[in-house]
Amino acid sequence: MGRIHYRTQGLTAWTLDGLRRLRHRRGTPLIEVLGPRDATQHGPTLAFRVLASDGQTMSGT
């Protein structure tokens, strides 16, 4: 079970890093990750918001 936990934590860290690097052309963040910033405090499920270039949350409709 420890190997699964270690691998999942690594994938979570990689995904969090990638999502935080996504930017609009103007340089503003494209994604707002919800929850802890540290992958060691996160489970394998991530919650995030997609942001418009003005920083407002984009609607799902």
What does this entry look like structurally?
The protein has 61 residues and is α+β, with helices and mostly antiparallel strands. It has one domain. The protein contains 1 helix and 2 strands, in the order αββ. The mean pLDDT is 91.
- Strand proportion, as a percent range, falls in 5-15%
Would you report the number of β strands? 2
Overall, the morphology is: elongated
Report how far apart the termini are. Answer: 40 Å
Query: Uncertain runs with pLDDT below 50, 5 residues or more?
Result: none
Number of domains: 1
**Overall pLDDT, averaged?**
91
How many alpha or pi helices?
A: 1
Assign a percent range to the helix content: 25-40%
Structural category is alpha+beta
The SSE order reads HEE
State Rg: 13 Å
Strands in their spatial order, largest beta sheet: 1-2
Largest sheet: 2 strands, antiparallel
